[in-house]
Amino acid sequence: MADTSLPEVPVKDPSRLQLALQSDFFYQFKRSPVAVVSFVVVSILILSAIFAPLIAPHDPFDPSSLNLMNGFSAPMTPNAFTGETFWLGTDDQGRDVFSTILYGMRISLFVGAAAVAFAMVLGITLGLLAGYVGGWTETIIMRVADVQLTFPAILVAMLIFGIAKGVTPVEYRDQMAIWVLIIAIGLSDWVQFARVVRGATLVEKNKEYVQAARLIGRTSPAIMLRHILPNVLSPVLVIATISLALAIIAEATLSFLGVGAPPTQPSLGTLIRIGQGFLFSGEWWILLFPAVTLLTLALGVNLLGDWLRDALNPRLR
Amino acid sequence: MLAYVIQRVAQSALVLLVVGLVAFSMFRFVGDPIDNMLGQERTQADIDRLRVVLGLDQPFVVQYYKFLESAVQGNFGVSYRQGRPVSEILMERAPATLELAAVSGFLAISLGIALGVFTAIRRNGFAANAIMSVSLIGVSLPTFLIGILLIYLFSVELGWLPSFGRGETVKIGGWSTGFLTESGLKALILPSITLGLYQMTLIMRLVRSEMLEVLRQDYIRFARARGLKERAVNFHHALKNTLVPVITVTGLQLGSIIAFAIITETVFQWPGVGLLFINAIQFVDIPVMAAYLMLISVMFVGINLIVDLLYFAIDPRLRADRTGGH
């Protein structure tokens, strides 16, 4: 008897990358020029911030590499004394503006990302608790959220920064400033996450899979983290992206006002603050380039967030 | 209705008590007031005496109560940095901020509503689309960059307007006003545009979307069918019905204008309360920070309460919901 079955052809399971490339999400992404452009721009900025020490022609924090004679060189023109040329010019101390922007962007992005991560963890935890546990826990958490929402986030961040600055001893203030900034911006921003997660949890917790998990005896924390959380993550992702843009601007604003990153660790906001001092004497490049970088970064992340919101919302398709 | 009012008032009072507690703890835990007030050459007897005089030997709750009592009477202590009563400094600075806020609020509301109506009526026109795109940029530009941009354009390049300060002011009673001198008015222009721009775009977008919503309703179609003039339909029928949400949002934005004044005042070195607050943070001047915190909270909580109650009074649907639901 002849074997009629076909010879077995090995079928490879599609790899994760292939799955991602075939996904609806990626299709949407390819079709939106705004999303592609802002993704590319933001990626370039983030990568150049991460690899700043490799890219930057000078180390702005190394005093030995600075030459005061190079001060106030205009962009792309050789310095009158040393003959050195700087792409984006130098500031009053002869620091290369391009390098300070790269390092400044590093601090801006780090503070922004860390603040959003902090706000996200706090907001998700409180939102899950409020939605799943309910009762008094919910009332208290959501009341606090409501009250905080009535105050503008930037004001809350300023107040927290001010209080924290008062509490830390003088000698640690400059070192702690970055961390205080992260906590201040994070605390001013958790409400959005908590509200969305709570709303989604209220819907999810009555679904059958949650009841099933409860029936087989899983504990409440396990149900919240392993079952509900993965199902409420997509709106969180959207808020996180938009929050990142807001956090970057909040950090820049605080640093610009002189209540943020210290002069020893200048962020983009600090650089703009320094640059403003040279506005009247004609050294426009010290101000302009950090400002343009900040805007590009914030706008890029914002547009990406907008696109993400539309792409992840099935109702808008 | 009464139950709702009482509930909201009680809630607001609770919030203010908590804010008061935060402000009070700042005094308690940030530095020792004794250290701040007595010099190097102090004896234990001095310290003990001052501790009793200041009431620091009493229990926490009693101290908190006393703090609230004096705060309600407008007594916030003495500024560490300037050595003068905080209430006096605040009174001196308040007119600058209030005048700035009033002018920018007026700009934001009048221009916001006008542009909102315009962009809604000429929805597909070139001008309306241009305004909408520009407003998108306006929303994503941080306030301080708008300020710097305006300074660069109108003070540095064109030299038309001053870049900092209030110009000359005239004293009327305890109120110093910049409205009466030419330099005072000139100095107001750039800061109030900076401060009002964000609120203006917000109001404009809100009015536009509300107008578009209303213009689709049947009663508008009916008004048109009756042969009413376009103008009468747009302004009498449509605009009127968009105003309830606009008033709410505008009310809530009043508080934001005062808060964002901090940024504008710093950019333009405008001698108002916001600049005072930023300087207080930089120098850890606790009494000023606490006083500002209390004042701004009273304002925010008050505005929210009023807006909520007004909303409740204006919109009968809300009332029916409340009484029916519970």
Describe the structure.
The complex is a heterodimer of chains A (317) and B (326). In chain A, 43% of the residues are buried. Chain A has helices at 16-22, 24-31, 33-50, 52-55, 97-133, 135-150, 153-167, 173-187, 190-204, 208-215, 220-256, 268-276, 285-312. In chain A, helix 6 packs antiparallel against helix 9 and helix 9 (190-204) runs antiparallel to helix 11 (220-256). By secondary structure, chain A is mainly α. The mean pLDDT of chain A is 82. With 326 residues, chain B is mainly α. Chain B has one domain (86-321): MetI-like (MetI-like fold), CATH 1.10.3720.10. In chain B, 77% of the residues lie in helices and 2% in strands. Chain B has a two-stranded antiparallel sheet with strand order 1-2. In chain B, a hairpin with a 2-residue loop joins strand 1 (170-172) and strand 2. In chain B, helix 7 packs across helix 8, helix 10 packs parallel to helix 11 (273-282) and helix 11 (273-282) crosses helix 12. The radius of gyration of chain B is 25 Å and the shape is flat. The N and C termini of chain B lie close together (12 Å).
Strand content of chain A: under 5%
CATH superfamily of chain B: MetI-like
Number of helices of chain A: 13
Class from secondary-structure proportions of chain A: mainly alpha
Estimate the global geometry of chain A from the Cα principal axes. globular
How many β-strands of chain B, per DSSP? 2
Oligomeric state as shown: heterodimer
CA-based gyration radius of chain A: 25 Å
User: What low-confidence regions of chain B span 5 or more consecutive residues with pLDDT below 50?
Assistant: none
Biggest sheet of chain B: strands side by side, in what order?
A: 1-2
Main beta-sheet strand count, sense and barrel state of chain B: 2 strands, antiparallel
Total domain count of chain B: 1
Termini Cα gap of chain A: 56 Å
Instruction: Return the CATH architecture of chain B.
Output: Orthogonal Bundle
Q: What's the CATH topology label of chain B? A: MetI-like fold
Task: Spell the H/E element sequence of chain A.
Answer: HHHHHHHHHHHHH
Quantity of strands of chain A, as a count = 0
In the CATH hierarchy, what is the class of chain B?
A: Mainly Alpha
